[in-house]
């Protein structure tokens, strides 16, 4: 049973790409709560949205649309304050959000990353859904073409990736969208077959099985314990305490751009180390892909305890020299 995982709508009206933003503004003209430019720039740097072909204004528009769509994660009718809105934006999978919307806008740099990171796992998931290598390949190719936005309506490029909000992992979104497309296919071609029969014939877990989740928790703990004190402090300050890059930079006495670059490199290193740890524990590549797409709320692990550190000293002189601050 699918659990709280967002998916691309199959209704064409939901697949319209957002209009390009004016470079001088980071808010939609009708936006009731404009996002502070400093916050947009911070998240844009952390997400490395520029490498996905997105300008600060375009990324700000994406964030604005996502925030308005779900009322910044609070109950409909309630009015979020500035702190709640900022916390909501920082809780998003912003790197994956930038990648998805860069792809939706047809940016080549974003597509290169998407293909290398998700094409293989997309095919594995499709084969698992259909129970057939041939049908799975056809399903994956069909969705890939749809994601690429080959279809145009009134001359406008459309892609389901434009509906990805970053609230769940992009890997989970892709798997759930595959399930949805496979069910749509059966409704069109096998109307006499009940949905229950389809699910029994082509099951796909919405999340890794408990055993894989246990292994993921162990691998995450092992990976985080291998970090030095400064790296643990960075992760804890930014992701758990919701401090801004500027606040962390002041604590460590380095420029916020240095913190942004360090967080990005640290995230990449953690992903590689986590994959290596999962493989060393006996998981296959397909199982690793499934585990990495798990909902973090399903993993029983105390991140704050693992990241706890009393080390808040400045970066070493060596790091300061190799990571020269950008001009303010």
What does this structure look like?
The protein has 328 residues and is mainly α. It has 2 domains: 1-203, no CATH class; 210-319, no CATH class. The protein is built from 15 helices and 2 strands. It has helices at 37-46, 56-69, 82-91, 94-104, 108-130, 133-148, 170-189, 195-201, 210-225, 229-240, 245-252, 256-280, 285-292, 303-307, 317-322, and strands spanning 152-153, 156-157. Strand 1 and strand 2 (156-157) form a beta hairpin. The termini are far apart.
Q: From the alpha-carbon coordinates, what is the Rg to the nearest angstrom?
A: 21 Å
| Helix/strand class | mainly alpha
The tally of domains stands at 2
Strand order of the largest sheet: 1-2
Q: Please give the share of residues in helix.
A: 55-70%
Count of runs of 4 or more consecutive helical residues: 15
Coarse shape: globular
Provide the descriptors you would attach to this structure in a database record.
two-stranded antiparallel ribbon, disordered N terminus, 328 residues, mainly alpha
Write the layout of secondary structure elements.
Blueprint: H1 37-46, H2 56-69, H3 82-91, H4 94-104, H5 108-130, H6 133-148, E1 152-153, E2 156-157, H7 170-189, H8 195-201, H9 210-225, H10 229-240, H11 245-252, H12 256-280, H13 285-292, H14 303-307, H15 317-322
Helix pairs in contact: 1-2, 4-5, 5-6, 5-7, 9-12, 11-12
Can you summarize this structure?
This protein is an all-alpha fold and 328 residues long.
């Amino acid at each position: 049973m699918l659990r709280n995982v967002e998916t691309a709508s199959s209704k064409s009206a939901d697949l319209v790409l957002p209009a390009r933003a004016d470079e001088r503004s980071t808010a939609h003209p009708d936006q009731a709560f404009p996002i502070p430019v400093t916050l947009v720039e911070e998240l844009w740097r952390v997400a490395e949205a520029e490498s996905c072909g997105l300008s600060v204004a375009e990324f700000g528009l994406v964030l604005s649309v996502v925030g308005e769509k779900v009322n910044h994660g609070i109950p409909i009718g309630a009015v979020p304050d500035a702190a709640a809105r900022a916390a909501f934006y920082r809780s998003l999978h912003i790197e994956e959000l930038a990648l998805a919307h860069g792809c939706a806008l047809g940016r080549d740099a974003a597509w290169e990353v998407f293909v290398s990171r998700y094409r293989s796992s997309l095919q594995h998931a499709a084969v698992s859904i259909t129970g057939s290598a041939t049908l799975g390949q056809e399903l994956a190719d069909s969705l890939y073409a749809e994601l690429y936005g080959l279809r145009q309506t009134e001359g406008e490029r459309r892609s389901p990736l434009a509906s990805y909000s970053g609230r769940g992992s992009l890997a989970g979104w892709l798997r759930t969208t595959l399930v949805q497309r496979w069910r749509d296919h059966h409704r069109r071609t096998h109307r006499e077959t009940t949905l229950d029969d389809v699910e029994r014939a082509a099951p796909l877990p919405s999340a890794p099985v408990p055993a894989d989740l246990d292994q993921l928790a162990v691998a995450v703990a092992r990976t985080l314990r291998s970090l030095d004190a400064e790296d643990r402090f960075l992760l804890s300050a930014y992701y758990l305490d919701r401090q801004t890059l500027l606040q962390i930079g002041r604590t460590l006495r380095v420029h916020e751009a240095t913190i942004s670059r360090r967080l990005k490199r640290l995230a990449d290193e953690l992903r590689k180390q986590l994959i290596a740890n999962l493989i060393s524990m006996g998981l296959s590549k397909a199982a690793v892909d499934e585990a990495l797409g798990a909902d973090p709320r399903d993993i029983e692990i105390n991140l704050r305890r693992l990241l706890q550190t009393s080390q808040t000293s400045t970066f070493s002189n060596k790091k300061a020299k190799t990571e020269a601050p950008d001009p303010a």
